[in-house]
Structure prediction request, 336 residues.
Amino acid sequence: MIQKTALVCGAGGFIGYHLVKRYKEEGYWVRGVDIRYPEFGTTLADEFIIADLRYPDKAKRAVSLKEKSLTACFDEVCQLAANMGGIGFISQDHSAEILHDSAMINLCVLDECRKRRVKKILYTSSACIYPLRNQMDPAHPQCSETSAYPADPDTAHGWETLFGEQLYLSYIKDYNMDIRIVRLHNVFGPMGPWRGGREKAPAALCRKIAEAPEGGSIQLWGKGDQTRSFLDIDECIEGLRRIMLANKTLPILNLGSDKTITINNLALLIARISGKQIELQQVPGPRGVRGRTSDNTLILKELNWQPSQELEVGLRKLYPWIAEQIKQQFNVKKIP
Prediction:
């Protein structure tokens, strides 16, 4: 029996690291590709290639499968590689590099998959593609899959992933390729960035609260009344595998939680998990759209499944992990 194979582009990143782990648990032979190794753990990939996928020759090397004991092409390719981060990164002066880098990665990887006749492809898009006009009311954001057009994302990252969707849809139409497109909504959990500007709200708030003294304060950008929903990494990976294993053609799907929370209440929830009394200090800063959540009507219809885990369950995994990272960093600095 020939072992199934998977290629994970972006395997050095947060979601890619966990996806490689899941593939190995399912018995796949896995190649990971990224410009760097995972920051917080050792990859479980059978082979890990350091490569800049913005360049065609690097993409060709990544997608080529020459091992005699394996199939002629990958059974599954997951294209997660991108230049992106949290609101503090994508809302600042990074628009040109985000648009250029992520577009080049998708153009190079997808065409190599076409040439190599890859059997099945996953493209991870983003909830950032949704129009600004549908996210002005924090209590009632409108993010159903069909609401993406007329297009009006609020960031370059949103425009780039919208272009990515059209690129992959065109390859489906013109080359009859089996491609699954997923719009991810605010994925969080251990092994992800928690400092440096690319971290997202749950990790940033965990870091701030872990570093704050008892009775201290932390800063929040804006009034903190903007709403979001957050998807635990374990449910994200479960959803991605269900989408890839579905034995039918699927439309573009949201993958996220449909349970919203204000940023203020998110901070207070993390503070409660930490056991600290923390005051919130609102300061000017990028805050993104007023409200965003995942409309799960379509994924429930297509897969008879949707994320259901309570936010606190995931945060109780994330907070101690970040607190331990901070502790280790502090101990390293103390070494003479």
